[in-house]
From TrEMBL:
The name this protein goes by in its record: SET domain-containing protein 9 isoform B
Lineage: Eukaryota, Metazoa, Chordata, Craniata, Vertebrata
InterPro entries, per database record: SETD9
């Protein structure tokens, strides 16, 4: 039992904020050194923005018939999407037919038709491997934006002690900002609370569907991609 607890602690301690704070100077491998911020980017900001706008626009059009309340407050945005739907059917064949027939595609299907691949969160076939992210359709080219890391963002000076207990989803950015991508327990409650607080009338400022089994943003599964290993 002690060996099992030790193995569990060795795998988890890099997510435990108090341990990180006390051992950061001694465990330099948990902090990468990058001389300039621009040299730490595998994919440029322009490529990331282009990909996100492409998939978010497709998701919006796919759900176009249910956006009446929001579009009523944004007539310019509504006219832009109507032009896209009716004047460019050849470039938007998938979304155009969806709008006309009101048969919505699933987020995974829409991701495949938009970016050429589809990913999903699922249980691994390996014993004790837990939950992971898998490419279910298509091909992912090198350098492509594959997923996002959803969660509550904490600045370096904000407390996150209780949220970090038993939480393997604390992601530490190179600038010290922490992202809590846990979709259960205290973390889930904190994110929902912040989402309701920041809501402006009918406008939801954040997506809460990643906290549920039915994810509306197919890219919001990055927290289930393994990003830490006990090996140097």
């Amino acid at each position: 039992m002690l060996r099992a607890l030790r193995r569990r602690w060795e795998a988890y301690k890099y997510r435990f904020v108090p341990w990180i704070a006390l051992n950061l100077r001694h465990k330099r491998r948990t902090l990468r050194y990058v001389p300039e911020d621009c040299k730490d980017k595998i994919v440029s900001d322009e490529d990331v923005l282009e990909t996100l706008l492409k998939i978010f626009k497709a998701l919006f059009i796919n759900d176009f018939t249910r956006q009446t309340n929001i579009l009523a407050l944004l007539p310019e945005v509504k006219s832009t999407y109507l032009e896209l739907l009716h004047l460019q059917p050849s470039k938007s064949k998938i979304t155009f037919s969806c709008y006309e027939s009101e048969n919505m595609f699933s987020p995974e299907e829409l991701l495949f038709h938009t970016l050429g691949f589809s990913i999903t969160r699922n249980q691994s076939s390996l014993v004790s491997a837990g939950t992971g992210v898998f490419v279910t359709r298509g091909f992912v080219p090198k350098g492509a934006v594959v997923a996002m890391y959803p969660g509550t963002v904490y600045q370096k000076y904000e407390p996150i002690f209780f949220q970090s207990i038993g939480n393997p989803f604390i992601f530490r950015c190179i600038d010290g900002v922490l992202i809590d991508g846990n979709d259960k327990g205290i973390s889930k409650a904190v994110y929902r609370s912040c989402s309701r607080r920041d809501q402006l009338g009918l406008f939801h400022m954040s997506d809460v569907s990643w906290l549920t089994p039915v994810v509306q943003n197919p890219l919001a599964v990055g927290q289930y991609v393994n990003n830490c290993s006990p090996d140097p």
